[in-house]
Specification:
Elements (H helix, E strand, L loop, with lengths): L1 H85 L10 H11 L2 H15 L1 H14 E6 L2 E6 L9 H8 L11 E8 L2 E10 L2 E5 L15 H8 L8 H13 L12 H15 L8 H8 L18 H13 L3 E2 L2 E2 L2 H5 L14 H13 L1
Parallel strand pairs: 2-3
Antiparallel strand pairs: 1-2, 3-4, 4-5, 6-7
Helix pairs in contact: 2-12, 3-10, 6-8, 7-10
């Protein structure tokens, strides 16, 4: 009996110990869970504070960035204004010959149009051609040597005649002269005698000067752009306006008057070439068939044959541009100079100076005659 009681008491003590241990373990777990929750709350609070700090920093950085952007934009605007103020003016769009044709028709004065067309019609008239030819016979002498001929104008015969009129007569110099002939022209001009070679081809001439006839330190220029550049390289006379004025004075003066006393030797040689080209070569009188084709608005001048001569009246147009250059004038709103009038290839305001100038000069005359 005692053993049973003792056994029961021992079993009861063991059970109580187990309950006590379980209760202690449960309390520990609850404590740990509580601490974990508290820690999470603290961490969440800290994270929240960090985010707030980060947000303020980001906002502050954004403000700095915006401020920098404003400063940069302001500087860019200032730079753009300065660049626009000091940048070189844009070059005007280069014209094509077809545009130069229309530009000339739209821009030159009506009185000039009449002068150009009347000059053409006067010079292609057979009676007037014969008169010019007779003047050349009267003024000078011909010397024939095989395929080369020399025509020498006697200064005494033209001493009272403006050089412009001598040039006008020379636009008929190829009458009765076969193609391929070289003409040595000895011409009194600006107080001196100058020797020029004229090559005949389809009633047109090419102008050339030889070194043997001019000082050693000078040279011949065959292209307009080189020719006008040489005209402006002087010691005393350098500006476009001055050079144009002197050339115009030469045309209006008698051959014995020295209008080139302030020119260098190169300027004199280039002036001879320039005047022979613009006043004679570009205005060579064509044969009747070609002249009639130009007068007929229905003729396609590109396909028409035979092509002869060039365009009487283009010497008048060249003088008009020289007057503009002398006066520092404008053409189509553009200040003119030797370069943009004669030396810009197909963009030259003087239509004969561009590529295919003879065709476009004929076309211009055809349009003006309509």
């Amino acid at each position: 009996m005692k053993c049973s009681v003792f056994f029961l008491l021992s079993l009861l003590g063991t059970l109580l110990c187990c309950f006590s241990a379980e209760e202690e373990l449960s309390g520990a777990l609850q404590s740990v869970e509580g601490e974990s929750v508290e820690r999470d709350a603290i961490l969440e609070d800290v994270e929240s504070q960090l985010n707030e700090v980060r947000g303020k920093k980001i906002e502050k950085d954004d403000k700095k960035t915006m401020g920098l952007k404003k400063k940069i934009n302001k500087k860019e605007k200032i730079n753009k204004k300065l660049a626009k103020k000091y940048q070189k003016p844009k070059a005007k769009k280069l014209h094509k010959q077809s545009e130069i044709l229309q530009l000339t028709i739209d821009t030159i004065p009506q009185t000039l149009k009449q002068d150009i067309t009347q000059t053409f019609l006067y010079r292609v008239n057979q009676n007037n051609r014969d008169n010019a030819k007779n003047n050349l016979i009267k003024w000078g002498t011909w010397d024939k040597q095989d395929t080369k001929r020399t025509y020498t104008i006697n200064p005494e015969e033209v001493k009272n005649i403006p050089s412009k009129q001598v040039f006008e007569a020379l636009t008929n110099i190829l009458d009765d002269i076969p193609d391929g002939t070289n003409i040595k022209l000895i011409l009194p001009l600006s107080g001196n005698d100058y020797t020029v070679n004229l090559r005949a081809n389809y009633k047109q001439i090419t102008v050339q000067t030889f070194n043997s006839d001019f000082p050693d330190n000078t040279c011949c220029h065959k292209k307009y752009k080189d020719l006008v550049s040489a005209l402006l390289k002087g010691d005393k006379v350098k500006t476009d306006s001055e050079v144009a004025g002197i050339l115009l004075d030469t045309l209006e003066s008698k051959p014995s008057v020295d209008t080139w006393k302030d020119f260098t030797e190169q300027q004199k040689r280039s002036a001879v070439e320039f005047l022979l080209i613009t006043q004679v070569a570009e205005a060579m009188v064509p044969e009747n068939e070609m002249a009639n084709a130009i007068k007929d608005k229905n003729v396609d001048l590109k396909t028409f044959k035979p092509k002869t001569g060039r365009v009487p009246g283009m010497d008048v147009l060249a003088r008009y541009f020289l007057e503009l250059i002398k006066a520092n004038g404008k053409f189509d709103g553009t200040p003119v100079n030797f370069q943009n009038v004669f030396g810009n290839n197909e963009s030259s305001f003087y239509i004969m100076a561009g590529d295919g100038g003879t065709y476009w000069g004929r076309k211009l005359m055809q349009e003006l005659l309509k």
